[in-house]
Amino acid sequence: MAMRLARQWRVGSSQKRQDLITAYLCLLPWMVGFLSFVFGPMLFSLGLSFFRSDLLTSTFFVGVENYRDLFREDLFWKSLRVTFIYAFSTVPLGSCLALMIALVLNQKLLGLGIWRTIYYLPTVISGVAVSLLWLQIFNPRAGLLNNFLAIFGVEGPSWLYSSTWALPSLIIMSVWGVGANMLLYLAGLQGIPTHLYEAATIDGANSIRKFWHVTIPMLTPTIFFNVTIGLIYAFQFFTQAFIMTEGGPNNATLSMVLFLYRKAFLQIRFGYASAAAWVLFAIIITFTLIFQYSSRRWVYYEGEAAR
Predict the structure, then answer these.
(1) Cis (ω within 30 of 0) for the bond into 249?
(2) What is the pTM of this model?
(3) For residue 99, how many other CB atoms are within 10 A of its CB?
(4) CB 128 within 8 A of CB 239
(5) CB-based contacts of 60: which residues, under 8 Å, 6+ apart?
(6) Residue in 104, 93, 252 with CA at minimum distance from that of residue 174
(7) Which residues pair with 51 in a beta bridge?
(8) For 8-52, what is each residue's pLDDT tens digit?
């Protein structure tokens, strides 16, 4: 009996080792790619942030001088302000709009599959193509938006050509891509158990109370995910500003990523740009951790109390 158990243990251990080796072999391409193209460049960028370098002719160690100069530069603070305004405007706006669309598409409507596809399609279009499209929409003379306003006798602003309206224009444009969040909210809505709504109906709750006391609490995991990912991407917005305004007019749409792009590839200050990149990374990590910590108070799961 003991010999049989020992033999079975050896066979089981051998099978586990084979499964482990197979798993690592399958993961090997991804691990090589991650170390070569993500983690490795990140470490190189961190080291480069302590040097004054153009990566072509000379490299000098300057310690934290790049970081000191960065925090003394007015343009950096302006890019930080633009990024914060964009992030904390587009994320709530996009999340609320996506939830509203999901609520509508969760009803029994004619051609529901077609409507869902229509709302999702803009998210698969290239960011450059979208930017070129919205350049025409925001054209102050022949653009679709100002022509629409002219029907009601309203003279539209200069949009991207105005330092006042340029950033709001990019914020308005951001609602174009709410389709992905809409699908996640729709999946969350369809995953809410019907017995919760039935219990609320028995208790005499109307539609508004059901929404606030059943729908929203059960959607908090999806809201948490969408807002977290949305903030991470919003802090890194670049394509729209680069293609449509190049950071102008008067640096009104200068995002932090566009700022470090200028420093790295136009002014050939790669060490300085690396310092800016790591400051942005620290900001993103900080807000992500804060949001993660706050989720213990407001994110709920079925069958669980607030964590």
Answers:
(1) yes
(2) 0.88
(3) 24
(4) yes
(5) 51, 52, 53
(6) 93
(7) 61
(8) 555 556 777 888 888 888 989 999 998 888 899 999 999 999 999
